Amino acid sequence: MTEIIAIVGATGTGKSGLSLETVDELGRRGISAEIVNADAMQLYRGMNIGTAKLSESERRGVPHHLIDVLDPTDEAAVAWYQVEARKAIDEIHSRGAVAILVGGSGLYVSSVLFNFDFPGHDDEIRARLEEELAMNGPGQMFARLKAVAPSAAARIDQKNERRIIRVLEVIEMTGNSAELGTLPDEPDYWRPTQIFGLHEDRERLVSRLDERVEAMWASGLVDEVRSLIPGGIRDGVTARRAIGYAQALAQIDGALAQSEAIAETQALTRRYARRQVSWFKRYDDLEWLPAGDVGNASQVVSRVIADRS
């Protein structure tokens, strides 16, 4: 019997809307449901515009878990998220409800749905690597990673300092890259799950994403980022690098003109969407649905009901 409904896909395909419609459709069948966030950046308090986070009123009274649970200075770690998300799902089940996992952060989704084990941390190794990063820069650290674990390096953006340090840390701890950030060869579900992915025509999605970024600036993203500076967003390992937020900070600092900040955010958003699609295509049991189709919620619920009968 289905215990988790997962709604995934690229950014801008309407996952949040479908999750709410699915809750409504389940309710009409006498089944209660609650939503668990699987968007890494929506974990952060105050980061609303750039993450397209639903406001309280837009959530329509539906319980949402793991939204606004971290400060911008906190580091979002997938191992931590796995524990917290599964705890939330267990609590939802204890109330007799279905958990709907919603988001586009592929590794976060996989960490919940499948039996992933994550290596621990070594503070001493991490501190030394951070010091070396400060002295030598990300280019040299990435070159080191590429030399010792080329397959791991191939999956990492060479500008992603946090990810480079994490993989180097794991290599020192375990002697190998442990295939970080990949699905197991034969994924083993943590709980009975049905996965639905939203897909959109590439050209339409690109146009929508570009418009969405422009709308974020028009809605006050720069002011939102400016309001987060006193709270330490500049010191946040994860938050300060978020797409849109990094560019808004650069605009505030005078390093980018507004037009440049918008264009860079649009390009990064398009690239991120491509990576999301590639990630979710590896889910063998995923059922793709056309983004925006009015019948999607009914189809999701019909599948769940059929599994219960």
From TrEMBL:
Give the SUPFAM superfamilies listed for this entry: P-loop containing nucleoside triphosphate hydrolases
Note the Pfam families from the entry. Answer: IPPT (PF01715)
Which keywords has UniProt assigned to this entry? ATP-binding, Magnesium, Nucleotide-binding, Transferase, tRNA processing
Q: Which InterPro entries match?
A: Dimethylallyltransferase (IPR039657), IPT (IPR018022), P-loop_NTPase (IPR027417)
Could you give a GO molecular-function term held by this entry? tRNA dimethylallyltransferase activity
What PANTHER family does the database record attribute to this sequence?
TRNA DIMETHYLALLYLTRANSFERASE (PTHR11088:SF60)
Q: What is this protein called?
A: tRNA dimethylallyltransferase
